[in-house]
Design a protein that fits this description.
Blueprint: H1 4-32, E1 38-42, H2 49-65, E2 69-73, H3 80-87, E3 95-99, H4 101-109, E4 120-128, E5 133-137, H5 145-154, E6 160-162, H6 169-181, E7 186-187, H7 193-201, E8 207-210, H8 215-219, E9 223-228, E10 255-261, H9 266-279, H10 283-291, E11 295-299, H11 301-322
Parallel strand pairs: 1-2, 1-3, 6-7, 6-8
Antiparallel strand pairs: 3-10, 4-10, 4-11, 5-8, 5-9
Length: 327
């Protein structure tokens, strides 16, 4: 006779064994990982601000994990080249990536194979950029942001500026500001912070909107900082107003986070998150952030995923408002 009670007991027993097996398997996976070096795909050139800050985070994390984290520079495509490679990498924890505003914006501008909300596993947000700024050469005729805007309004299409790439937060902020104040200036995208500095100091462009690679040149009197693009003032340049301080609505939200390919095993993701979170307390990481006016800024995997969703939605709205079309 079919014994339902015995069947229920057996099913419960098997499910219990399966649960124990999965629990022990997850614990074993976390304990043995990593068994070899980890690659981190950096979408910006070597020696730039983001590259150096990320390397400063990876150094203490490598010591904790017992394996080197190799930062591999894969610049190009406004960070999309590195993200495509990451998406196509195995979900085993041995290939990680860096995500920021540019990579989130690019799918709105080009037909790319990745979806930032679907194809990656968030690990940690570790920095924010509150000191993105608008800079000119020290001998430029514009002493204030108002001067620059008034000149651009009187000379439509004459003012040329640069930012790190098409679709990066600086570029979006400048085009948003142009729409807000009724001016037309020309964007000439650059490939790196070093290229931006060279072009501006060489007089090839009128101004730059970028991360604070300009800081030493401003402090040395070779450049003038007209405004910063964050929601709050820079701790180093407290006398410099934000665009919001000047009465404009524009600002440039920007952060940096670490991600893996979709399907990253939870035990590995948890271990990486814990390791990088602890590495944020490293004195050299803190020092490097201070050197470049980058804010150490933590958010959890769930928090980073929300940051990415929110910024993608904001950029999608921007593209729609401006009538931009995918290439």
């Amino acid at each position: 006779m079919f014994n339902r009670t015995s069947l229920k007991v057996n099913i419960f027993f098997l499910l219990s064994l399966l649960g124990l097996f999965l629990a022990f398997g997850s614990a074993a996976l976390a304990q043995t990982y990593p068994a070899k070096p980890i690659s981190l795909l950096m979408p910006w050139p070597a020696g730039g601000l983001t590259d150096l800050v990320t390397r400063a985070l990876c150094e203490p994390a490598s010591k904790t994990l017992g394996q080197p984290i190799l930062v591999l520079n894969k610049p190009g495509g406004a960070t999309s080249i590195a993200l495509v490679q990451l998406m196509q990498s195995p979900s085993d924890g041995y290939t990680l990536g860096y995500i920021t505003g540019s990579g989130i914006m690019m799918p709105h501008l080009q037909n790319l194979p990745y979806d930032v909300n679907r194809d990656f596993a968030s690990i940690i947000r570790f920095i924010e950029f509150s000191t993105l700024g608008v800079v000119v050469k020290a001998d430029a005729p514009w002493k204030t942001m108002k001067d620059l805007i008034e000149y651009a309004r009187a000379n439509p299409g004459k003012v040329k500026y640069t930012s790190p790439a098409v679709g990066n937060p600086n570029h979006i902020a400048m085009e948003s500001l142009a729409k807000e104040v009724g001016v037309k200036w020309v964007h000439v995208p650059s490939k790196s912070g070093a290229e931006i500095i060279t072009a501006l100091l060489g007089g090839h462009l009128d101004f730059a909107a970028t991360s604070p690679e300009w800081k030493p040149h401003v402090l040395a009197g070779k450049m003038r900082l007209l405004a910063t693009l964050g929601q709050k003032r820079s701790g180093t340049f407290l006398d410099t107003p934000t665009l919001i301080d000047l009465g404009y609505k524009t600002y440039a939200p920007s952060f940096g986070g670490l991600i893996g390919p979709k399907g990253l095993p939870q035990p590995i993701g948890d271990k990486l998150h814990k390791t990088f979170k602890e590495a944020m307390n490293d004195p050299n990481f803190q020092k490097t952030c201070l050197q470049f006016d980058v804010d150490p800024s933590y958010n959890s995997p769930e928090g980073l995923a929300k940051d990415i969703r929110d910024l993608s939605a904001l950029y999608g709205k921007f593209v729609q408002e401006y009538g931009l079309k995918k290439e």
